[in-house]
Design goal:
Length: 145
């Protein structure tokens, strides 16, 4: 019995140590996928899923409430904010006299990102929606258990 408790403590320590190292790496990888998405496979959806996985791993290692404390706003508010960013990225071409959701590329390129356009803004909105939905589901389920 005592041996099982020691093993459980060791397992929890290993999981927490791993989560502490993996959380920033997974967030960085998700941002990489987000940025690369308008040129190659990737984008807001898969980037948002990877970011969500990072926070789910953290909630397994610690607790959902401790993970929730990492956010300055509730993850639910990422959903309408992401929808607004995506909608505005589609509305930007209309302001410039083009059709809705037409890709607009700006003349100046950004050092890390490269060519910057409305596709990246749309992907950013999708990223925010995915992270908001997954974390809202996670925290809602954890509150009810």
């Amino acid at each position: 019995m005592e041996r099982n408790r020691n093993n459980e403590k060791l397992d929890k320590t290993i999981l927490r140590t791993s989560a502490n190292y993996l959380l920033p790496l997974l967030i960085l990888f998700s941002i990489f996928l987000l940025i690369r998405g308008h040129y190659l496979p990737g984008g807001g959806f898969i980037g948002g899923l990877i970011a969500s996985i990072a926070f789910v791993l953290h909630s397994f290692a610690y607790s959902p409430m401790q993970t929730l404390r990492m956010f300055s706003i509730k993850p639910f508010f990422l959903i309408p904010t992401g929808l607004l960013v995506s909608f505005l990225s589609g509305l930007l071409p209309v302001v410039l006299g083009r059709s809705f959701m037409t890709g607009v590329w700006f003349a100046e390129s950004v050092v890390v990102i490269g060519a910057f356009g409305s596709a990246l803004l749309f992907d950013l909105g999708v990223y925010m929606v995915v992270v908001g939905v997954v974390l809202t589901i996670l925290f809602t389920i954890s509150e009810n258990t």
